[in-house]
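Structure, all two chains, one model.
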Amino acid sequence: MYRIFQTMLVALVLFTAVPNGLRAEEALRDLVNALGEAKLSDMDEHITALAKTGDPKVVAILEALGEGNLYARKADGEVFLTKESGSSLTLIDPISGESAGEAPKAALSKVKVNNGVRRAVRSALGSLTLLSPDRAARLRAAQSVLQSPNSDALGAIENALAAEKDSEVRALLEQARATTLLISDRPVVEKKEAVRLLKENGGREALSILSSALGSADETLKPDIEAALAAIEQTQALWAAGQNVWYGLSLGSVLLLAAIGLAITFGVMGIINMAHGEMVMLGAYTTFMVQEVVRTSFPGLFDWSLAIALPLAFLVTGGVGLALERGVIRFLYGRPLETLLATWGISLILQQSVRSIFGPTNREVGNPSWMSGAFDLGGLTITWNRLWIILFALAVFAALLFLLKKTPMGLQMRAVTQNRRMASSMGIRTPWVDALTFALGSGIAGMAGVALSQIDNVSPNLGQGYIIDSFMVVVFGGVGNLWGTLVGAFSLGILNKFLEPYAGAVLGKILVLVLIILFIQKRPRGLFALKGRAVEA
Amino acid sequence: MNYRARVTGAFLAAVLSTTAFNGAFAAEDTIKVGILHSLSGTMAISETTLKDAMLMLIDEQNKKGGLLGKKLEAVVVDPASDWPLFAEKARELISVDKVSAVFGCWTSVSRKSVLPVFEELNSILFYPVQYEGEESQRNVFYTGAAPNQQAIPAVDYLMENEEVERWVLAGTDYVYPRTTNKILEAYLISKGVKPEDIMINYTPFGHSDWQTIVSDVKKFGSAGKKTAVVSTINGDANVPFYKELANQGIKAEDIPVVAFSVGEEELAGLDTGPLVGHLAAWNYFQSVDNPANAEFIKTWKAYTKNDKRVTNDPMEAHYIGFNMWLKAVEKAGTTDTDAVLDAMIGVSVPNLSGGYSTMMPNHHITKPVLIGEIQGDGQFETVWETPGLVVGDEWSDYLPDSKDLISDWRAPMSCGNFNVATGKCGGKGS
């Protein structure tokens, strides 16, 4: 009570005694300080009041509010913009924009935000920054008025549209105008024009706007909206098929990455390596280690962390593979059952040791900026990380093919696996070729782990999820044939993604397994069977 | 010769009996507490933390002088995420190690597998994880949330504060999501939501390719009505799910996701920047600001010697359960199962969200329900909480075959599934 009285008194004194500019500043400061005490449910009104002042300083204040950087000082209730500096916060005066010293976190209380507040901030900021000289800010503003249409903003949008020169911003603003128009009380003729524009642009947003407008629309407008909805849905269905192919390719590339190392150890050498998944896991943990070092010592290199991790993961897992082959597997050649059991045991040992060293919980592997987000290609949404993984999988495949077919090492590998005794009598050191081939397969699995760390958990269980799929791909594609692995991975990926929308994820997976079993019955050697004498050996 | 042999025999017997007596005496010196959490296999990711939390609680209690003048001794076993092994290990804890109470289990299937063992050998289990309800057993105390202490308040929040009209119920394909979604579906329909505004989707364990489902959610959300996702997706599958959400640009302001299985531990493996504003419903958050919680977090970080370790809801459930058990044993003056079972009901201990939790006659506890939004630092900020405590409701009122059932383990009723319509004990469930 006393506080309110005091504020009123101060306000009274100020109103009578100080010049206009200062008075406006004090009024703004009161509005900002009110945020500190407001309840979440009243925040909407406070934000509208702030936006109504039209003061350019409000933009920075609202941005800070939306990002959760607005704090109230517990001692006197003053609200500040803040910046993180170690364990305390640097205070910035909201009106003057000058630094107001530092304060420990315990002396401040955060101005609470929830989704409702963020939406209100977004819409207020949208209409405030529509005329900003900065193109990026205008683009953001146009997007936000489009996303949260508000019939009060119609005038502001039309003003902005009249002044806008940039074509991209203009297109967004046109859409925003049409959207806002539909919910305003403008005449039906204008609304019809808006529906036509939305129909032309199409897309999911238009669908959403039109179907929500349908309920409250005028009788004469309804047929227009319904026709537009039908037209958009039709094009969306076509794009959905394209989207499924893309998802299939993307799933296929993940399968290819997981399986390609196995295509060498199992496909070429014939070792049933149950620890293959753990090589993938070790590769992912190498990425984690690299990122930890980069984060603490060279934060500027973060976007390069994956490029640094790739060769390291190859070396680490290749080394583990080499040790495995020399230590265990070479004693078990020709005894597939024992190999299976031994490698399965090794996989458990590797899992548990990673669990003991790094702990059982997930580890955070960040996405570099060039692997985050998505872009639109027509009606397709393409996420960057998936696109890079497809390209990476193809690159690894091409490199491996080159290595096997065009280098002396590849020649020796093929010679040894096709006819060991003959190769040996030609002077090839077969035990070393075996070891190197196994190390190569493991190393490639490790590189796959670097890529998979971007889309999956980095936990000790990472490998288990891929081992079955990898064997499936190699067997389906044809043991011993790299091209078979490529075609097998992509066809399984696409098949899976076309089944999923109809059968659901659980049933879809089962159906794929059943189909593979049937296929193997018909063609026991897979899609691309090896032919010739080498097979019989 | 004969005589000598007899003397030696008697002497030996005497020696043996004294050692046996000594052994028994040594065992009497400590009270044993069993910890039944997976330390290897798929569930180790969640359960190892709970084992550490229990060890810390026991350690702290011993520093305060133990219980009934004796030290507490933890017996840790590893059921290795293998459901039948849970039953075997439980039997080993009770009959070989003679523990007085067991704290353990995470998945519902592991709990179901140990139930007959606890019933047969008459021991006590504290179960700390939110679960689907539809169960109340004499030997089990449920310190995690029942559906009405988590799922239903979360849906209410979305309906009132976010004005959600269209619902995606997404879950992993097993008993907890299936039952919870059944309850939620019945609840939503009772609130006037049309069946075509509810989309239910199940995925296998460890699902990692979320592209199709996330794009389906986007499509479902573009029907002009405010849409939200209620996620009962379990464990490891969450990380790729949230990554896909972030990459496909689904913002919390447009389509919020409220999760029942995502806590501070799960977020530790994620960059939460793009996820700010997505929600979780729990009975405790690490960010809850009160002295008891601050003390608990400090002890936890010191015990694990790791400044980055986070606390979560099931840990709090063990904290409550353990303190309740201490109080009940003190009240009963013995660790005898039947006496403790009787003493447990009505016991009230402070929880970490700033109030008291009480053990009810249905073996569930009272808790506040908090809704939190994910923050950029991997913590939650409470944006809403129930005005008072919510009593765990074991038999859901929204399912036709359980709405007439109640549970009351006090004499003379002593029944976990009393049917108020027929007036008889017995019906669905245990």
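Chain A touches chain B through 65 residues (CB under 8 Å).
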